[in-house]
């Protein structure tokens, strides 16, 4: 099952709910965004990490690719739920 959530024009809290549900279900979620939505992806991931106990940023990848003769930046943030001991 795909664990990716693509950040776009929806409300920040809609993404927070989706990420929290996916973390509770799968233990891992991947947040992806391109262009102007990168800031919202970072904001949402930090809000989730700071508000949900036992969640950490596992990996961050920033890339740039050619799209219609323009460079488009993209980000991939992996959030992981910590194991309960």
Describe the protein's architecture and organization.
The chain is of the alpha+beta class and 85 residues long. It has a single domain, classed as Translation Initiation Factor IF3 (2-Layer Sandwich), CATH 3.30.110. The chain is 34% helix and 41% strand. It has 2 helices and 4 strands. A 4-stranded mixed β-sheet has the order 1-2-4-3. A hairpin with a 2-residue loop joins strand 3 and strand 4 (70-81). Helix 1 (12-26) packs across helix 2. The longest helix has 15 residues, at 12-26. It is elongated and about 45 Å long. The two termini are 26 Å apart.
Top keywords for this entry?
elongated, 34% helix, 4 strands, 2 helices, single chain, Translation Initiation Factor IF3, four-stranded mixed β-sheet, alpha+beta, 41% strand, 85 residues
Strand order of the largest sheet: 1-2-4-3
CATH superfamily: Alba-like domain
Distance between the first and last residues' Cα: 26 Å
Helix proportion? 25-40%
According to CATH, what is the class? Alpha Beta
Task: Indicate how many domains the architecture comprises.
Answer: 1
Outline: elongated
Share of residues in strands: 35-45%
Structural class: alpha+beta
Largest sheet: 4 strands, mixed
Number of strands: 4
Number of helices: 2
Please state the CA-atom Rg, rounded to the nearest Å. 13 Å
Helix-strand topology string: EHEHEE
CATH-level-2 architecture: 2-Layer Sandwich
Runs in which pLDDT lies below 50 for 5 or more consecutive residues are: none
Calculate the mean pLDDT score and round it.
90
- CATH topology category name: Translation Initiation Factor IF3
């Amino acid at each position: 099952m795909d664990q990716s959530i693509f950040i776009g024009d929806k409300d920040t809290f809609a993404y927070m709910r989706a990420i929290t549900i996916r973390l509770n279900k799968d233990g891992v979620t991947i947040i992806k965004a391109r262009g102007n939505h990168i800031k919202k992806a970072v904001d949402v991931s930090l809000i989730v990490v700071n508000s949900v106990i036992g969640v950490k940023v596992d990996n961050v990848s920033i890339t740039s690719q050619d799209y219609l003769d323009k460079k488009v930046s993209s980000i991939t943030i992996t959030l992981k739920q910590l194991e309960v001991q």
